[in-house]
Amino acid sequence: MKLPLLAALLAAFPTLAQTPKPGENLVQYAHPIVGTQRMGHTFPGATVPFGMVQLSPDTDTISYELNGKYNPKVYEYCAGYQYEDKTIVGFSHTHFSGTGHSDLGDFLIMPTTGPLQLNPGTADKPQSGFRSTFSHKNEVAEPAYYRVKLDDHNILAELTATNRVGMHQYTFPKADDAHIILDLTAGIYNYPDKNVWTFVRVENDSLVTGYRQTHGWARTRTEYFALQFSKPFRQYGARNYAKKQAYRGFWGRFDQAHNFPEQAGEQLRLYFDFKTEAGEKIKLKMALSSVSTEGALRNLRAELPGWNFEQVKRQGQEQWQQELSKVTIQSPKRVDKDNFYTALYHAFLSPTTYQDVDGQYRGLDQNIHKAEGFTNYTTFSLWDTYRALHPLFNVVQPKRNADMIQSMLAHYQQSAEHMLPVWSHYANENWCMIGYHSVPVIADAIIKGNAPFDANKALDACVTTARQQWYDGIGDYLRLGYVPEDKSGSSVSKTLEYAYDDWCIAQAAKKLGRPDIEQEFSKRAQNWQNVYDQRIGFMRPRLSDGSFRKEFDVLSTHNQGFIEGNAWNYSLYVPQDPAALIAKMGGNARFVPHLDSLFTMHLPDKFFAETEDITRDGIIGNYVHGNEPAHHAAYLYNWTNQPWKTQQRVRMILPKMYRPTPDGLGGNDDCGQMSAWYIFSALGFYPVAPGSPEYALGSPAIHGATLRLSTGKTFRITVKNQSDKNVYVKEARLNGQKLTRPFLNHQDIVNGGELVFTMAARP
Questions:
Q1: Which helix (H) or strand (E) is 334 found in, with range?
Q2: Measuring CA to CA, how many Å separate 597 from each of 383, 400, 594, 621?
């Protein structure tokens, strides 16, 4: 089903039948161009679930650096595509989805007509380069498919993909001067020296191979390609835009700019010339590999041997249909389905496949390895995704999640630092964010019985990681029981997150019968108490002499001992033991009004002005839903005498923070975490503490759902008396038995059965 983008995203949604028909096309409800205005968008379309190729348009070439300093404008281009832009520079093959930092944008392709131009031009003067204006009226974005009219060149561009191969289809006008440009200088979060080296071979008149190595968020990243054309090019050429080097060898004897089959340099752009008839289609296949050009060719031949674009698109959308069908929901409102399946689409974009069809991949040690018995994945944004995305996978993608953990363990084995991943991608650890949040992902799988790997070896890797005293304040954390702010910034956040991760290790150790490890890390898990200042009722940075820092503002998100959050949000971060936190903060009588005020007070702009990842769009009161540290906060009422307030808050957050529009998310999607929060909350429960088998109940936002489990069993959710006003759960029954506590066990889900909510307008 192909709808014009504006109609698909912005028009009023028609009422649909409450119960979906068997085999209903769920792909129609997933809208790739949903993101945030300021922080950019997830990439629109051309990828399969967890695909290695994530092919989409890039709308500008903003440099990471400006006059020798960081350029804040680049933040809007984390995903390469900005909905407000009016030009497209080209179509590149690798992207992140809604991250707050970036990389990638490999191997940009752009079709053009007219005099050859090998510079991209500028947004205000697109005719000065090869970029083109476009209109959203002529743009279609669907899972596994993207289409746009390039107005300046009168070319219809269409994209689709398999796991490892991107397929382009360009419909040209009649032209004697048609070109396809391969830009190896382009990239996301680019800067002049980001390319370390690029190499290209023109193998014949329709096949090109090569690689590029970049230095960015991933310090040493090498990506190979094989590019095949459906039509022989009649001539080709290249230009090297790098500054001249002192030594250039003896290559100067050749005319390398025209029809020379081998190119190497730091800043290469190539062009391939054609003559076209009106309506003629030229197709391209770009296969990727982290291993070699031979690996890229092998991927190309295995996954996409033919040229049937519509068949590739159809197969890609069938893959999406299969994955989206793992959860079918019922609702009379189209907007609910749009929100839900857009969120599920986002959740199934990453982590991404990172191996060739024969299992080979580039490891963290930059050597070539082979995944034996598992699929190797990359793109681990773990500070975000441990909270809800990986717990979601333990329900609906258990095999993939187990493979992701085995990929983390391979990373650990290849690590010179003997560390599990922190934030890793493309055979690199980029050390972004804090904590060691591979740990809760691994512990959650062990606790929930989804550990086909060697669980004891996995636990050993967790323990070794957690004992690395050189890493980010852990030495002081072990010595003092907290991270001191005068030794390591964001000290309170680190202390709280280490304590939670340590609790996860203790839970896994208990499950595996390792009492020595359980005792050691249960004790460490209590360290959160060491940064709680009883006098003011907030977590607060301490110094190495034991004193609390005097200069302190509980509202500010900048330089107060927290990362991407303030004391109000982070002081609630004890997901492993909310009952103890509530007692520490004065019990129900004091805690409930305190939690109430989080959602009702006003946070002035000045308190988050210096934090890129927090914007007004993602804030409700002082609750920052647009960033992750407080994602569990609305569910904390379940540990008080007023659990109905969780139901009220969840149903208030959902429509405010999620809409199927180009500016529909209240913050970075962060590789699926924001969307996973929506999925769980819309279904009526949430994993407050991954590493525990319990989910906290909330208020379902749909009329019913069926979860199709990998075991062949189903778990059904039925919601009676559902309406926008009936947000309170009058009663919940599991398989006919009334629940007496607002919690659900993981085993209750995987065993199959039915959870019935009865809703009411009053608590």
A1: helix 334-347
A2: 26, 40, 5, 8
Task: Please tell me whether residue 78 adopts helix, strand or coil conformation.
Answer: coil
- How far CA 414 is from CA of 307, 420, 423, 428, in Å, comes to 39, 10, 15, 11
pLDDT in tens, 488-502: 999 999 999 999 999
pLDDT at res. 743: 98
Q: How far is CA 762 from CA 95, 148, 267, 399, in A?
A: 45, 49, 64, 41
Token duo for residue 206 = 């329709």
CATH number for the domain spanning 275: value is: 2.70.98.10
Q: What is the pTM of this model?
A: 0.96
- Residue 181 in any domain: the answer is yes
Q: Please state the three-class secondary structure of 610-632 as a single string.
A: CCCCCCHHHEECCEECCCHHHCC
Rounded to whole angstroms, the Cα distance separating 581 from 274 reads 68
DSSP state for residue 637 in the 8-state scheme: G
The type of residue at 676 is: A
Distance from CA of residue 475 to its chain's centroid? 31
Length, in residues, of the chain: 763
Please tell me what DSSP assigns to residue 33: -
Could you give the CA distance from residue 136 to residue 511 in angstroms, rounded to a whole number?
53
Question: Is 497 inside a domain boundary?
Answer: no
**Residue 17 and residue 484: Cα distance in Å, rounded?**
58
DSSP state of 610: T
Per-residue pLDDT, 45:
78
Peptide bond into 700 cis (omega under 30): no
- Rounded average pLDDT over 708-737: 98
Query: What's the alpha-carbon Rg for the chain, to the nearest Å?
Result: 26
Please say if the pLDDT value at position 7 is more than 70.
no
- What the block records as the tokens of 157 is 């561009």
Whole domain around residue 187: which residue ranges?
A: 5-322
User: Which is it for strands 281-289 and 352-353: parallel, antiparallel or unpaired?
Assistant: unpaired
- 745: which 2 tokens? 């066990």
Task: Please compute, for residue 215, the number of CA atoms within 13 A of its CA located in the half-sphere on the CB side.
Answer: 8
In a domain? residue 400: no
Distance CA 719, CA 198 (A): 57
Residue 191 corresponds to which amino acid?
Y
Q: How many helices (H) and strands (E) does the chain have?
A: 18, 41
Please report which confidence band the pLDDT of residue 196 belongs to, taking 50, 70 and 90 as the band edges.
Answer: very high
CA distances from 530 to 443, 484, 496, 501, 536 (A): 24, 11, 9, 16, 14
Residue 356 identity (one-letter amino acid): D
| Other beta carbons within 10 Å of 462 | 29
Q: In what order do the strands lie in the sheet with 728-734?
A: 327-330, 704-708, 714-720, 753-760, 728-734, 737-738
Render pLDDT for 530-556 as a digit per residue (tens, 0 to 9): 999 999 999 999 999 999 999 999 999
Rounded CA gap, 613 and 72, in Å? 12
What six digits make up the tokens of 55? 């092919």
* CA angle, residues 33, 37, 38, in degrees to nearest 5: 130
What letter represents residue 267's amino acid?
A: Q
The backbone torsions φ and ψ at residue 175, rounded to the nearest 5 degrees and listed phi first, read -160, 135
Backbone angles phi, psi at 574, to 5 degrees: -135, 60
Rounded distance between C-alpha atoms, residue 738 and residue 732, angstroms:
6
For residues 190-198, average pLDDT: 94
Q: Is residue 247 part of a domain?
A: yes
Q: What is the DSSP track for 167-202? A: EEEEE--SEEEEEEEEESS--TTB-TT-EEEEEEEE
Question: Is the CA virtual torsion 525, 646, 553, 100 positive or negative?
Answer: positive
How confident is the prediction for the chain on average, in pLDDT? 95
> How sure is the predictor about 37, in pLDDT bands with cuts at 50, 70 and 90?
low
Mean pLDDT of the region 325-346:
97
pLDDT digits (tens, 9 = 90+) for 345-386: 999 999 999 999 999 999 999 999 999 999 999 999 999 999
Residue bearing tokens 């852990």: 474
Phi, psi for 74 (deg, rounded to 5): -65, -25
Overall number of domains in the chain: 1
